[in-house]
């Protein structure tokens, strides 16, 4: 093979390095500024409030009458989503979850349909199909969950989704690894925060970060 002159080789090396350096890198983006509901929509009159830099939903004084969701105005497809949550409650069904690849229903208008990274007793860090197949698609071992969940305290939750491959992580431990077999199920949609109806329950969310893939 014929060798390039030294200065041509240097120029080629620098150009190649320059191409590597200028490639855009993915970065995490905050979905909640800690002060306003900018970028979100839902019942911010009664159900959802901002308290101490967190999104708070539900009530410990009154039974939440039905499911409520605070959801993004933007749709997302492939991403890594990170949130911190704290679920509290003392009566009835104490449950919450993070919707993704979801849409709002028209009837009733407060409901959503799509995947839910579920949270609450018997559902911790499992994958549920909300208002569609209406079933848990995959759930972690209860003994594992009992070791990693921090009840009535802050927990780290991650949702990884890429082209139908979904993984959930609770406090750094993987609890779900699921590949969607049904190619008709949408892999794009809104992200939503739920407070489940039927209990005196209150959930808090903060540090909501997304990295689009």
Automatic annotation (TrEMBL):
Leader peptide range in chain numbering: 1-17
Tell me, what's a Pfam family for it? Answer: 3keto-disac_hyd
InterPro entries, from UniProt? AL/BT2_dom
Q: Write down the superkingdom of origin.
A: Bacteria
Domain 3-keto-alpha-glucoside-1,2-lyase/3-keto-2-hydroxy-glucal hydratase, chain residue ranges per copy? 29-211
Q: Which UniProt keywords apply?
A: Signal
Question: Does the keyword Signal feature in the UniProt annotation?
Answer: yes
Q: What is this protein called?
A: 3-keto-alpha-glucoside-1,2-lyase/3-keto-2-hydroxy-glucal hydratase domain-containing protein
Species of provenance: Dyadobacter fermentans
């Amino acid at each position: 093979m014929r060798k390039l002159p030294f200065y041509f080789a240097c120029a080629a090396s620098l150009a190649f390095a320059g191409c590597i350096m200028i490639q855009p890198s993915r970065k995490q983006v905050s979905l909640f500024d800690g002060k306003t509901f900018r970028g979100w929509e839902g019942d911010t009159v009664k159900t959802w409030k901002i308290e101490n830099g967190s999104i708070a939903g539900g009530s410990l004084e009154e039974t939440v009458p039905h499911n409520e969701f605070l959801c993004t105005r933007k749709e997302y497809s492939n991403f890594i989503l990170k949130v911190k949550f704290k679920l509290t409650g003392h009566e009835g069904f104490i449950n919450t979850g993070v919707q993704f690849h979801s849409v709002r229903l028209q009837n009733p208008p407060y409901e959503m349909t799509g995947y839910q990274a579920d949270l609450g007793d018997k559902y911790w860090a499992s994958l549920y199909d909300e208002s569609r197949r209406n079933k848990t698609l995959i759930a972690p071992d209860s003994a594992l969950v009992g070791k990693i969940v921090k009840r009535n305290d802050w927990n780290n939750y991650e949702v990884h989704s890429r082209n139908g491959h979904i993984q959930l992580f609770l406090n750094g431990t993987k609890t779900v690894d699921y590949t969607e077999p049904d190619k008709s199920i949408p892999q794009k949609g809104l992200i939503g925060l739920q407070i489940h109806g039927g209990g005196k329950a209150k959930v808090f969310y903060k540090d909501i970060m997304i990295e689009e893939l």
